[in-house]
Amino acid sequence: MKVIVNGKIIQKDCILENKVLVFDKKIIDICDKAPKNCEVIDAKEMYVSPGLIDIHIHGSKGSDTMDGSLEAINIISNSMIENGVTSYLPTTMAMDKECVHKAFEIIKKAMSNHSQGATVLGVHMEGPFINEYYKGAQNSEFIIKPSFEFIKDYTDIIKIISYAPEVDKGFEFTKDIKKNTDIILSICHTNSTYENAKAAIELGASNITHLFNAMSPLNHRDPGVVGAALMTDVYCEMIADKIHTNKDIFQFVLNNKGKEKIILVTDSMRAGCMEDGEYELGGQVVYVKENSARLKNGTLAGSVLTLNKAVYNFFESTNLKIHEAIALASINPAKSINIENKKGSLDIGKDADISLFDKKMNCYLTIVEGKEVFNKII
Description:
Layout lengths: L1 E9 L4 E9 L3 E5 L7 E4 L4 E4 L1 E6 L1 E2 L2 E2 L5 H11 L4 E8 L4 H16 L6 E2 L2 E4 L21 H4 L6 E6 L8 H9 L3 E4 L6 H9 L4 E2 L15 H7 L4 E5 L7 H11 L4 E4 L11 E5 L2 E6 L2 E3 L12 H11 L4 H6 L3 H6 L17 E4 L5 E6 L2 E5 L3
Parallel strand pairs: 1-4, 1-5, 6-9, 9-10, 9-11, 11-12, 12-13, 13-14, 14-15, 15-16
Antiparallel strand pairs: 1-2, 2-3, 5-20, 7-8, 17-18, 18-19, 20-21, 21-22
């Protein structure tokens, strides 16, 4: 067993001080005094937080999910632990069927043979079932109509499908997914009307991918997808880099959605944690400069955000307390993909996914299922 002492333990509704966190592979106890014969970790007054969960990330440290290699997934996994992320969904893009399926196969291998870095929880499939009008940085060459046949062999590993409901004729794909799988449907890259988006939500679409970005906007005559997102009970992803959305919008969304339904994500591409320069995303050239990743025409192409920074940005720009901001990147994403019984908080019996952060959310220690994988405090 191991214990963490001298830390501020982040709980869902409070911060505990002068307590000891006891764990092995699972969280064992939170108590007043460390049991005997335990390895002791001194948190040095830092926040002892549940590990962060990124449900939307394409790449980092020069590698991308669509590289289709186990090495690329391992690089991404090892990059994320430096920012306190303990589990994530590698996210695909609109590319040809063979490339997408190859990425699925590699992710399946990474899930069954986790040996390093952050845990791979499954696949977030973003595209190719999207609307070309709001394609963003997705390649229009590979955009197709929603097809259950396309994903039927991978329903065991796909956790989220981000799609445009208006291109789903008669909502047949939506109905097939909700009837035959446990996959979460998330609305994205969409020109859907308010009414159409609400209809998809009523049929089971439960998430909105990167709220405000690549979707029909809020208008007083047609509230669009943004209006449907704010006026229904769906989870809403946000890329809190202060580039994809103005920081003053954070509190507006919080006021309308409540803190239980916002999920912070990075949507990071391969330039995450790298220097400015020229990179690639989905077969297109991306230029990274001053924390912004864009195509040649200026279109935002994912981000270079880290999830701990997203938490700090949101905390700094809203009236949330730090433990509430951390929940947007821990228990909320866990709930959204139905793994809250295992991950997302420091409850007794859950996986010992733990991160230590300072007041600005810089990460100093990361523990994945009880194993120390990153340490900057030694």
